[in-house]
Structures are given as structure tokens and as C-alpha cells.
Amino acid sequence: MDPATEMEVPLVQNDKVGRMFDAVYSPNGGAIAAHWNRPPKAGIYIIPLVGSVPYEQRSRQLSVGMQGPIGWSSDGKQIYAVEYGKQDTIFAIPAEKGDPRTVVTLPLPVDRTVDYGPTITPDGRRVAYMVSESQSDVWMIENFDPEVQ
Fold first, then answer.
1. Could you tell me the residue range of the domain that residue 102 belongs to?
2. Quick one: three-class SS letters along 38-98?
3. pLDDT tens-digit profile of 13-71?
4. Which of 18, 28, 100, 111 has its CA 20 to 30 A from that of 76?
5. Number of structural domains the chain divides into
């Protein structure tokens, strides 16, 4: 949305180019990083939010596969991300060029996974994530209603 005119324009105007998920704004608000299941290669893309060139031409792919961005570094030079389905490792992908590096592997109890996507502070020093535990009892009642045969 343009704050001056209040005019709204969808970022993705053609659903044939796939859908975006988990969009996170860059520190300066000029771009987003998002998982885009854009054919032929899904992955994390950076999409500048300004310009007259169509978004699919402005975007650039950072990773290939099933990763989701969870934040940007405070200087905008890297994007923090997790692998979908295996959210216990947070890695940083350079926003310009370079190989991803592992930032942290989350300490999880045995046989547990992260319930919801973790989040990380822009300085990369603090992570919040949720792991739940469930317990249940099973009760068996016989002859609960003696009139029922």
C-alpha cells in the first residue's frame, strides 16, 4: 500500500506464478524476503517493493528448496531462515551472494520438534521458539450402563 495515496496493489498479481509464504520486511522496508513456490524452483526470494518493473523480474532467488525466512539481520546483509519440517536449525543466507551458514541448532528435548517457526532478533543473539509436550490418560469403563446390552 502506498501510504501517500492509500492505493493498494497486490505484490503477486498472477496466481500462475505461485504463492508466497512467510514474508518478512527488510530493515529499511524496501524489500521482502519470502518463500515463493514459484515454478520451476521454489525457495527464498528477495523482492524489492519499489520500481516499475514487474515483481517477477525484480525478484532474485537466494535458495532453492523448502526454506522459510524468519527475519533479516539489522544491517540487511543476511536473511535468517529455517528448513520447513526441520526447524531446529537456523541458518543465515547472505542477501547478496554467498553460502548459507548455520547460526544455531536449537536444543530440543529428545523426540521433540519445534511446534511453530522460531523467530530471531536482528542481531542474531536471541531466539524464541515453542516446543510442547502432551500427556493423556486412557480410561476403560465396563458395564457403564447396565441397561444397555
1. 15-130
2. CCCCCEEEEEECCCCCCHHHHCEECCCCCEEEEEECCCCCEEEEEECCEEEEEEEEECCCC
3. 677 778 888 899 999 888 899 998 888 889 999 988 876 565 666 788 888 888 889 99
4. 18
5. 1
CA distance 144 to 148: 9
Cα–Cα distance for residue pair 118/128, rounded to 1 Å = 6
- Going by the DSSP 8-state scheme, the letter that residue 97 receives in this structure is S
CATH number at residue 101: 2.120.10.30
Residue 145 falls inside a structural domain: no
Most confident of 5-9, 77-81, 110-114: 77-81
- In the chain, the amino acid numbered 74 is S
In a domain, 147, yes or no: no
Of 54, 20, 47, nearest to 35 by C-alpha is 20
Is the model's pLDDT at 4 over the cut of 70?
A: yes
